[in-house]
Amino acid sequence: MKKRMVTALVHNQNGIFTRLMGMFHKHQYRIESLAVASAYPELKDVSKMSVILEVEDDHKFLQLVKQVNKQVDVLFVTDVTDEQVIERELAMMKQLLV
After folding, report:
1. Domain map (residue ranges) of the chain
2. Which string of b and e fits 16-36 if b means at least 16 CB within 10 Å?
3. 94 pLDDT more than 60
């Protein structure tokens, strides 16, 4: 299996992330990482979603990307696997007061 990274710009509507995760689940993709953030402060109703998936078949993966792009609240989807991107992991730490 190889890893593929997809980013999507979506409208902040109720249930959009649930619908998209349902599509990934329906096609039996394992989600390794998911990050959602407000990418552009001036666009308060738009979020950027980045997903890293484990993929077996590239053709099936490209079909999924096309299906995600057809969703009403999705502005556009990009496969950024072969592009140079900065990967980082965030850890949330809780400081205990003694």
Report:
1. 2-79
2. bbebbeeebeeeebeeeeeee
3. no
- pLDDT for 84 equals 65
Contacting residues for 30 by C-beta, under 8 A, at least 6 apart: 53, 54
DSSP annotation of 76:
E
Greatest CA separation found in the chain?
55
Q: What's the order of all strands across the beta sheet hosting 74-79?
A: 30-37, 46-55, 2-11, 74-79
Question: Does the domain formed by 2-79 have CATH 3.30.70.260?
Answer: yes
Q: What is the CA radius of gyration of the chain?
A: 15
DSSP category for residue 64: H
